[in-house]
Amino acid sequence: MRVIINRNLCGHPPFACEKCFGEFLLKGAYPDRSCMLDVIEDGSDQVTAVITSGPYTRELTITDDIRDQVIYDGYMKFTDFPDDAFEIPAPSGNDIRRIIHEYADEKAKQSAE
Ligand SMILES: [Zn+2]
C-alpha cells in the first residue's frame, strides 16, 4: 500500500510525524487529524510512504530491513530531504483545505486516465 503523508498539513516537528507513522506501521491505525492524507491499496505487501515536507516530496519503501528503524527512529533518516524541508509553519484552516482539495483533484485526474 501507499501511504500519502503531507507534513504541510500538520506543521508538527518531524519527530511527531514520524511517531504517528510508526504507530501506523505497528498497529495499522492512524489518527484522524494528522499529516497522513491517504492510504491507497496498490496490491503490494510493502508499505511505500510518499512524504511531502515543505515543497519537497520523497518516496520511501519500508522494506523488512528498515521497518523497525522506521518505527522507532523515524523515516527522516532514510530520506534525503534538504534542511529547508523541515521548516514548516503551522498551517491555517485555509492551507489545510487547499492541500486536501489539491490532492483530491490530482487523484480524480489520475483515476480518469
Ligand atoms: Zn505530521
Residues in β-strands, percent: 15-25%
Cα end-to-end separation: 20 Å
Tally of separate domains = 1
Q: Name the bound molecules.
A: zinc ion
* DSSP helix fraction: 25-40%
Radius of gyration: 14 Å
Class from secondary-structure proportions: alpha+beta
Weakly predicted, low-confidence segments: none
In N-to-C order, the SSE pattern is: EHEEEHH
> What value does the average pLDDT take?
92
- From the spread of the alpha carbons, the general shape counts as globular
Number of strands: 4
Kindly report the spatial arrangement of strands forming the biggest sheet. Answer: 2-1-3-4
Number of helices: 3
Give the arrangement of secondary structure elements.
Layout lengths: L1 E5 L7 H14 L8 E5 L6 E7 L2 E7 L1 H10 L19 H20 L1
Parallel strand pairs: 1-3
Antiparallel strand pairs: 1-2, 3-4
Helix pairs in contact: 1-2
The chain binds zinc ion (ZN).
The site of zinc ion (ZN) has 8 residues, from helix 1.
Description:
With 113 residues, this protein is an alpha+beta fold. The protein has one domain (2-112). It is built from three helices and four strands; from the N terminus they run βαβββαα. Helix 1 (14-27) crosses helix 2. It is globular and about 35 Å long. It starts with a strand and ends with a helix. The mean pLDDT is 92. Zinc ion (ZN) binds at residues 7, 10, 12, 16-17, 20, 34-35.
